[in-house]
Amino acid sequence: MARELKDLTTEDLLDRATSPTSEEEFSEVVAILIFRYKALVYKVVLWRCRGNMSLADDAFQNTFLRLFTWLRQRRGQPPLHSFARLIQVFARRAAIDLMRRERLPEIPETPSDEGRSLEDRLYVSELLEVLDERPRQVMYWTYFEGLSALEIAGRLDLTAGNVRLIRFRALETLKAVQARDREADSLEEV
Questions:
Q1: How many domains in the chain?
Q2: What sign has the CA pseudo-torsion 45, 91, 141, 155?
Q3: Which domain holds residue 55?
Q4: Please, are residues 59 and 49 in contact by the beta-carbon 8 Å criterion?
Q5: Which has the closest alpha carbon to 42: 86, 87, 109?
Q6: Does the reported pTM lie above 0.90?
Q7: Which of 36, 103, 118, 160 could pair covalently with 149 via S-S, beta carbons 3.0-4.6 A apart?
């Protein structure tokens, strides 16, 4: 049964977790969901906790404990949201709660985060990892903080033209990596 569960999509697993199933199957489904999303969730909570690994570890555990409890309470009822949305909300809340307890400032949502799924935002952050430090900073400040080329130039002691050139080259690199990822995904489907 575990093998057939692993082949299910995330949304099918979520449906399975909220349907009246045996306790054993429920635990297996939740374990598969946790395994699939653990790296992504940890990145989110680590970012929200401003790199504090101790808080991020606690937030990571709280995220999945909350998810497990919520799914158990929802058994027999249809899921209200996609799994990506659920895990995003639980991760955010767990990190914010711990940050408040530690009295650390919380990272606000950026305008560019609205309407994007957790998977999309995490894919973009993973894409940025292929860039060198300076292009990664430029792309982060541009797309996650909404800074202009002039504002970034002031932070990096460059001209606005240099920032635009760095951004252009970084976008070209990211497009090539994304095309390579799409090609790899299409090969896996065959």
A1: 2
A2: negative
A3: 2-102
A4: yes
A5: 87
A6: no
A7: 160
Note whether 54 and 101 are within 8 A (CB). no
Other CB atoms within 10 A of residue 145 CB: 12
Q: Domain check: are 53 and 7 in the same one?
A: yes
Whether 48 and 96 share a structural domain:
yes
| Other CB atoms within 10 A of residue 138 CB | 26
Q: Is 149 found in the same domain as 96?
A: no
Q: Which two tokens stand for residue 32?
A: 């598969």
